[in-house]
Amino acid sequence: MADDCAALLMDTVPVVMRLIRAEMSSHRAPYLSVPQFRTLGFIARHPRTSLSDVAEHIGLALPSMSKQVDGLVERKLVVRSSYSNDRRRVTLELTARGQALLQSAHASTQAAFAERLSVLSENDRAIIVRAMQILHP
What we know:
It is a single chain. By secondary structure, this protein is mostly helical. The protein has helices at 2-26, 34-45, 51-58, 62-74, 96-117, 122-135, and strands at 49-50, 78-82, 90-94. Strands 1-3-2 form a 3-stranded antiparallel sheet. Helix 3 (51-58) packs across helix 4 (62-74). It is elongated and about 55 Å long.
């Protein structure tokens, strides 16, 4: 039974993540690339993160990631800060504008999912909520 549950979870989670990514991407600003949008999301979840950590998560080499972040800094969505004792170490944080853009996309995505889930019975939605509560760390 645990194996069946694990297999179903491994089959279902990627499908749900694709739906979330597609919905979030559809609400991104047209001047943002998908990797830049994903970068904003990572920085939001990991404030004061390093360029290396973002590059690893997104799957880009450091020079490419640096260019992506340059564009976000130019658009005033991200701010770079250097450590006073090591100017080579840079941290990244979202600006208020970057946070607002990401929150707007998140709210739109949540609304779209709420609409999709509205066709389910109250009982089925309760089951999903309970499953998510169990799985949430």
